[in-house]
Amino acid sequence: MSSTDFSSQNGAGGPPYANGPSQNPVALQPPGPGYMAHQTPYNPMQAKGPMPPGPGLYNSGPYQPVPPVSSNQALPGQPMLKRPPMGPQHSMTPPQSASPNPGSRIPPAHATPPPVSANNYQHAPAWQYGGTPPMGAPPPMAMPPLRPAGNHMTSSPSLATPQASSAEYRATPPVFHNAMQPLCPPTSLQGYTQQGHMPTPGNGAQVPNSFDHLEMGPKMAGPLPPQQPSPPTRHMGLSYPSLPPGYQNTSAPPNAATMQHPVQPSTQPYSHPQPYQQPSAGPAQLSPSLSGLSLQSQTPEALRVVNLLQERNLLPLGPVTPPTPCLPQDLQKINCHPEVFRSTLTSIPQTQSLLNKAKLPLGLLLHPFKDLSQLPVVTSSTIVRCRSCRTYINPFVTFLDQRRWKCNLCYRVNDVPEEFMYNPVSRSYGEPHKRPEVQNATLEFIAPSEYMLRPPQPAVYLIVLDVSHNAVETGYLDVVCQSLLENINALPGDSRTKIGFITFDSTIHFYNLQEGLSQPQMLIVSDIEDIFLPTPDSLLVNLNECKELVQDLLRSLPQMFGKTMETQCALGPALQAAFKLLSATGGRVSVFQTQLPSLGVGALKSREDPNQRASAKDIQHLSPATDFYKKLALDCSGQQVAVDLFLLSSQYCDLASLGCISRYSAGSVYYYPSYHQQHNPAGVECFQKDLKRYLTRKIGFEAVMRIRCSKGLSIHTFHGNFFVRSTDLLSLPNVNPDAGFAVQMSIEENLVDMQSVSFQAALLYTSSKGERRIRVHTMCLPVVNSLSDIFAGADVQAITCLLASMAVDRSVTASLSDARDAMTNASIDSLTSFRTSVLTIQQPGLLAPACLRLFPLYILALLKQKAFRTGTSTRLDDRVYAMCQLKYQPLAYVMLMIHPALYRVDDLTDEGALNVSERTIPQPRVQQLSVEKLSRDGAFLMDAGSVIYLWIGRNCNPNFLTQVLGLPNYAAVPLNMNMLPELDTAESQRTRAFVGWLREQRPFFPILHVIRDESPLKASFLQNMIEDRTESALSYYEFLLHIQQQVSK
Ligand SMILES: [Zn+2]
């Protein structure tokens, strides 16, 4: 496949985008013919238990029994199996795109021309932010926009466990239990407390129902009364009139801390007597409250003018927190939590031309299936949705009276159904606005049967293992099998859960695990050109009924191939076999691969030239070498199969090609370079921890996610791992709690009559317990009409993450240098716009509003990031993996990859410490990423997301060495130290508490590397010192000068 195939990411060839919600009021098409549209009267309320598979769901067609081969004799020289007569095929029809509903808006016929940048050659590749709606109809199968993603896992004690009490509200008056246990104490994340969500036993996606069509009513109620936005209070920074550009190394201005607007808890854990919070939530009622609400709380600091050339240390003392949308407090209090749903601009421009003028990208960042410590769950026979655009009722709708509500996305007036009049929380009647649906911006529904196209399928897991000589040599099989044995009872599922195994080298090996056998039987298929399933009925077995055979297999697998000399590897045929095995039910395929596939379809050749790793020129081969993996992924997606890829290799494996299998099937990619059981113990530990998280984290099957937005806004490009089924609908055969998504948006119609707009993400999925669930997140943001207000609401981290995703696409569709230029230009353009359009008094220097003061730093960090750097030796797979991660990880982890956090830790104290679950967690201040911050008598910890470095200075305080590391002196620090000893000293406890707390903040397990001057990893550590100059890249100060030059033009 050529790189042009990716152009669809930016819309060309994509579906005709109509405007958001009104256009797709409905629904999803059945994912494939295997689906039965609701003919099965299936009552989810009774479906908690195992469901027998419906007729016809499993392929039980005729096949010729093949003599099973006992595993003991199965190795080389095995009798070959002949292909049995064709059984019934699971035909799969590519998912159709949803038909636009009648009356929807006409897709824009023209694309907005890209903003033309007036500057010189360097300025050429600017982005069109949201300007170009995709054109053309979606070819049924093609174009999932996006790139692969990275991923992670591992348990974060505080947030992870999906279980806990889910509060279920049942709506029908009589029965309802209100099991609201205030779950686990919300753990503080980054300084604020996450509230409002609770883990649930499922995961999710949203399913449409064909009744939607029938329900379609007239659209659009009248426009809202014009809003009177309060005049923004501008505080232009006149505070630095014309200081000489003495670039002092001063510390952050005292008010830096005040920039971090404390994040409000998004959802009130509603305890019973619920305060009546939302009398006038809807946009129509905004005016009174808005007019009283000046922007004062935010404007002064967010727009304070900072001369970047003068104020050197711009980092806040602690984590950078997102801006708080400028909404009336009662609305903001219940707004969606920024960890789940975030916008690059927390004030939405009224028009596209205003947005174009600001030169800032408009988009959303989502972490829709995040593990939550509290999640309201509603069981209701009627899920109340807008009849016109199908929006779920939410805290930002308006109740005109007790019987009518106005949709906040399309403004249609809807009736309040009778049963919605009953409030299960207060057990009272006649208070629809107090229902949990209207009090929570994030909640989950147990979906009734019309949200099912077939009975919810069981959890199905298929493990596919590379057992070639190279694979066995790494020793990874021991770890995988051991981890499966340890976690086999913790796999999400119920009594219907199924499991199966495939191994492969130059042939494909299946395992008959049928109940009643005395031991697993291995079946070898050597005809990899035309792969078939030898005994289709006994290869996927019920985990509970066949657990002993499964455990037998796991115990013997590592030895079975111990002496293999087979070096070939037929990954493509193995994946085809996996697809056939799961196509009836859907499910999850976990592929473990250790080398470049060499046999059969999908075989690849090395494309990496090691001499080009440090090239300062464009990097080749970022796009796939074959479309085999993408096509197979789309087939998988059509049958609700997701493929997760674990790549463990010391050699080039062409991740750019292999990663497509996960990218388009909504899977995850894990990459362990230089994995080896003996030689890389830290890598083994990381792999073990990741596997545990992977095997036990929540999972949702048969998922779809739809993103709706208020009339006038439109979604055009998605980033993440999925297949785009229609304009705003993502197909996610699996959804996991560690996946992030980003969306670019544009403004199609002026929002002049609106005071606020809303965005709603609905994820419909089948939980591992066989429940159909819908998780709904709704975010409300104010609309503004001045550039200064737009700038005041800019979320620099969200902007940076969205730009990173866009740059990954640009690297593949155009070139790496093009992407790099575009990122640089993004910062130049926005600061130019600020200078020329917002600042009223010109002054020398490079001026930025305080809310964007970190923008150039983050852009420089991106240019030096593994994904985009040039001139520094970077292996191609490492680079491609970094690109995957930038597109697939949630914002918080992406930010650590881009701009690691550096702390001095040899002098930790309890001053200002956090108290979490009776543990005291020191909170050292964040340091600038420059070697001049490293003092030789200290120890510094760098948190780069998936890796943590502990750098020990040559003259490090001996107290730290003895009390924390348990070492007599600097020379005793080993070159490959990966853990901190558990010493009974205050210093050791503080340090371990801090490192442990950092690790708890994420679902994957960052490796700790203790390094000193002689350590091989010192170079990696120093490469993260992004403020410093290197042979191939500018220092931060030089970069600022470069930007200033461009801005002044
Ligand atoms: Zn609506």
TrEMBL record:
Keywords assigned by UniProt, alphabetized: Cytoplasm, Cytoplasmic vesicle, Endoplasmic reticulum, ER-Golgi transport, Membrane, Metal-binding, Protein transport, Transport, Zinc
Region (Disordered): 1-167, 213-295
Annotated Zinc finger Sec23/Sec24-type domain residues: 383-419
GO BP term, example: intracellular protein transport
Chief place where the protein resides: cytoplasm
GO molecular function: SNARE binding; zinc ion binding
Pfam families, sorted: Gelsolin (PF00626), Sec23_BS (PF08033), Sec23_helical (PF04815), Sec23_trunk (PF04811), zf-Sec23_Sec24 (PF04810)
Bias (Pro residues): 135-147, 223-232
InterPro entries: ADF-H/Gelsolin-like_dom_sf (IPR029006), Beta-sandwich_Sec23_24 (IPR012990), Gelsolin-like_dom (IPR007123), Gelsolin-like_dom_sf (IPR036180), Sec23/24_helical_dom (IPR006900), Sec23/24_helical_dom_sf (IPR036175), Sec23/24_trunk_dom (IPR006896), SEC23_SEC24_subfamily (IPR050550)
Location of the Sec23/Sec24 trunk domain: 456-695
Domain annotation Sec23/Sec24 helical: ranges: 795-895
Record-given protein name: SEC24 homolog A, COPII coat complex component
